[in-house]
Fold these 2 entries.
Entry 1:
Amino acid sequence: MASSNAASRQPRHPLLTCALAVLLFIFIDEAAFRTGWYQAKVSVFSSSPSTLLTMSRWEQSHVTPGMREIAIIGNSQLDEAFYPPAFTQQNPNFPYHIVRLTAPGTWPRSWYYLLKSLDPTRRRFKEILVSSDGYKVIQDYRPLPDDFQEAVNILPLVPISDWLEFIESYPGWQNRLKIATILLFPSHAYAADIQDVILHPKIRLSEYGDAYDKYHFQPWKFEINDSVNVSLAGFAMDPKTCKVLAMPLDDPSIEGGLLAATTNFYNHDQREENERRNADFDVFWYTKILQMYQGSPTKIIFLQVPNMPAPFCNMAPLPDAPDIRDELPKMPNLSFLDPVMFAKLNQPQYFRDEIHLNLQGQSLFTAELGDYLIKSLSGGQS
Amino acid sequence: MEQAAIMPRLTGVFQDIFAIPNLAISPNTTAADVPGWDSLSHINLVLAVERNFSIRLTTREVRGMKNVGDLVDLIAKKAG
Amino acid sequence: MSFVSILFLLAAGAAACLHYALPARFRVAYLLALSYGFYATWSLPYLALLLAASALVYLAGQRIAAVPGEGQKKLFLGAGIGGLLALVIAFKLAGEIRGMLFPLGLSYYSFKLIAYLVEVYWDDSVCEPDFWAFMLYPAFFPQIVSGPIQRPLEFFTQLRRQAMARADYAQIEAGMRLILGGLMLKLLIADRLNAFIAAVELQPASYNHQIILLEACCFTLQLYADFAGYTNIAIGIGKLFGITAPPNFAAPFAASNIQEMWRRWHMSLTSWVTDYLFMPLQMALRGLGHVSTILCITISMVVIGLWHGLTCNFLVFGLCHAVFVSATALTAKLRRRIFGIHVVTRVIGYGIGVPLTFVAMTFSQLFWRTVTWANAMQHINLVFGRTPCGTLGWEGMRTEVAEPVMICMALAAYFGAGAPGLRWLAGRIGLIVPAWVQYGLALLLISTLTIEAGSSFIYGQF
């Protein structure tokens, strides 16, 4: 009876079947990944997308009204430099809530879409502190304009109305085709992560709960693993030849990172090309952030994160490198913190690898930035 | 040779070649219907038919056979 | 353009829509244009070769059908077959010795053309009068890259039928289902097993014996998943245009002896060799009894081996199977007497035969899959313990490569054994879940479970 019905049932028009199948695929795909459902279910640490998106979901649902929030936005360099819990502990009467928007592996493009999605009115934050790894751009080769991983990380933050602009921000038709594909089918972008969840379901699904409750997303570096708190005190380098004169640690991974940054790993013939590319990328996306906040009461304050002391060959900007302070639009609510504020931290003893501060450096930076926040916002209400 | 006379003799040949004592065949029987009838035993069948009916079959004729009925027609034609 | 690339599949789909939009009388020309266009994106000079070979065989076929005398027919047949074989052998040798690029699909379309000539020789009515329909036969793009090798009569009948009728929805949907299934077999199973094989091949001597044995089994399992997956996609694409190709696989791992396995593995090649080489040879040598059987089997198996490539490895592969199949053929009656008497003995027979057949196939794969003689010998020595194995186990490769291996092997073995129970399950599911939902979920699986690295088909190189 039922089976004979099935056998005599005429198949639909193939185009209709195809269309329905593809629509179902897109629907499930978008429902699982764009709404953040997938990111909500799996452990946070294992994937940068999860970090960024879980944080954004949390902050979206925990708004302190009345412009009483200070946003701190940047990548791991700022994330590990500034430790809000220490600041709020030392300054319990500080009237503003620090909103942590730093996530590892993110760049100005990510910060633009993150701010756009978290602050639709452009009146949520009193101040936004934006990280820059160097006002004068450094000349190492960075494929940031066509960074596919960044696209994967911020997929769900890009609303449909911005898809065209987002696709166009990638150079070349092949990149654009790839980006268009993952916008429509995010499951493909998350394939590696999904397969990891299938292979290790227990770990991935269980760790999430703790981390979310305790840290809201990525735990603070030194709270979970203080073995990373090493010091590069004793590291020395010849500024003229870029040769390493003394290496204090016996850790091959840290050593590798240091050597890669100090040797002439990158092609110096392409110095100007690299600088221009990095400057263009930074200026483009910082400008979009600034344009978003044009006419807004929110203050945008840039700060330059500490770096290992110059000359650090490829990581140090050259004196005549392009300076973003010259190229960004002038706006009344835009200011740049003087790099001299954190200059004393540009010492090997405060670093745990070539770009990240260690615990000592972190407390000094937090104290310094904290002092600035107190002084500049003293009086509370604006 | 008469078709009616061929069938019983052919049945005997089949039973012998495929070692199935009570095998019954009809004009519609094909290789799929007889266990053990594959490309390797096919040649044994052809040889046995040639021997039994004193005829000689060509590749073209063997190729053209689709079932036992075609074989019977072929034997009838050639055995005169 | 690879059959697994999204762009290609979308293009094929669009081409199929256009196919049915065109008036029926233009469809053959349209398919021809598509097929030649497809080939042209690969190589224009070799497209000229395909055109020339096809046209010459068309003329030869006409002559064979037209001339009255047997001797004259044989002349044109011999010239045609000789020419085509010379072409294949010349290019295979040029590839081995000079590194020259082998024409895409030459092994397949030359065999199609030989089949045509022999069929016309046996039966004049097979000769195809329509020149354009004929030219499509060797060039039909879903089948040209890696088969299946379809017979001329089957192809022309279907071509004529679909050129007259409107779209057969059931056939098209069956095609879509085959394409999805083939993609899953290839992308989700075959490519993962290939990643495992590639990891071991970096340093085979370092891995322990268990890994070496598993790798050998994977030679067979991965080849099945890869080629069966590809074949399903190819047959599926053909169905979109109203042409159903013959299958290449029918549960090969359920075979209880090697002879039966060859009837279920790469079926279009095996049946070609059986019909156009083995049987005529048998008829010619029929007086020699068992010797003739062994000789015919050996020649056929060696041809199957060498069809893949004129190397020592493929020759030995063919000889291995010559020995296996001969042994099977000569003991057929004996085995039937021992195992055939009762259902219990039959089950015991299967219990012994199925694994043994798999082992025999895997042994021969140690030559087939390892491209060079040295590599083959290395694997033989490692498998049989003549060279000591290393100590590296699963920890020697990345977790995302190592972890899925066992389940992928199990899946490949399951599908290779005919997927018992799947048809029943699919029937039950089909009652509540409409087809388009199944296809949508399949697309989701393909999207989320593919591995990163791009992959090529093993059989695309032949």
Entry 2:
Amino acid sequence: MSSAIVCKDLVVQRGTNVILKELSLTIESGQILGLLGPSGSGKTTLMRSIAGLQKIKSGEISVLGMKPGVAVLREKIAYSTQSASVYSDLTCEENLKYFASLFSRNEKTVDEILEEVDLNVVRNQVASSLSGGELSRLALATTLVGSPEILILDEPTVGLDPVLRIQLWELFNKLAAQGKTMLVSSHVMAEAEYCHGLALMRSGQILAHGTSAQLRAQTGKEKMEDVFVALVKGP
Amino acid sequence: MKLSRLMSMTRRVLQQLKHDPRTMALLVLSPSLLMTILKYVYYSKPEVFQHVAGSMLGVFPMLVMFLITSVATLRERTSGTLERLMISPLTKMEFILGYAIAFGVASLIQATLVSSYAIWVLGLKIAGSQSALIFVAILDALIGLSIGLAVSTFAKTEFQAIQFMPAILLPQLLLSGLLVPRESMPRILSDLSNVLPLSYAIDATRKVIMGQGSIAHDCLVIGLSLLLILAAGSLTLKRQTK
């Protein structure tokens, strides 16, 4: 199995504030890595660095063997921010068609994606009239166009009802089975169950990285919340 | 640059305008309203109306497109959509040209309407051709657009973006020869006036109205400053943040 994303000794500094402190992380292709941690731990900065949006101070990032942000890579990567970055004055369908048109390859049609995220009913509504859950699904949908090989999703399930959340995680697993690599952040520890691998993050560093079973065995705790606390406190 | 991406960029901006009929109506109709007021303010002095109305045809498009562009690009920046575009295959050139074409279409409609209204309804006499007038108006609109794009990077909120209008456009307006002929200004001001694009915009519109002299030189200056400001504007579109 090859590594899709490799970060080595990554340092990101904003002003005098060091956000990422020599962080190293590897994500295998076709894997869903859940990035868990409290807000302010640097999850978003890490994701932005991998997406190619963040200047890094030192260290290395390689995405599919390339430097983040290079033109070839921009055809293959999708990043969805925490707040839904869509055009609030356009309809769902217009948003999707626009984002789809930017990419040269689209495996799925706009109709299929609308179906997948369950937005067919509101396809002609402008984004500003959508509910919070619908809006985050629209943002997710706009990352699915263009057949990305790497999906970076910042808190995609925030504000969704449990049924929908499970549906979305099933969708993520389906995408991973098709060979897509996903980095998904969350502060809901329970969502760890759906990921192939987990990285627990705190103050700019990776506390632990492994499968949920490994982390449980390591700490001897059952609930993810307790696992996290045990890792923070140390042995 | 890819034509299909440029076209969808343009289509998207036009769709956004279409979803905002109130802005469209204000954009297209308010210059005609202002022209009407001008006409009756100078009712006893029709020659002043001739003079001022002509200049206003050059001022409206620049003012309006400056405002629209600075707010529109600021919105792209704050909503995170610009960031998404910056990591998509869309190029900066396609982004800027997309806006330029879409807003160019809007200013074509605006200029056609206001100049027709001024000529046919308000009795503005033009010696040159109306299409030359519209052509100059579109160039003016694009100047406004490019300045708007460039300054939007210095604004963090929409309030600030709007405040750039008095700070950046009004000095140009005062120095443009609209109020007093540029030749009668103190040397330093007339020199300053000579390097500001709005001065040439107003000169060109006046020349068309009076039918005196060629506008080729003015249009060349406007075109070159347009390229210069657009280049500066494109530098403000950063793919990476610190």
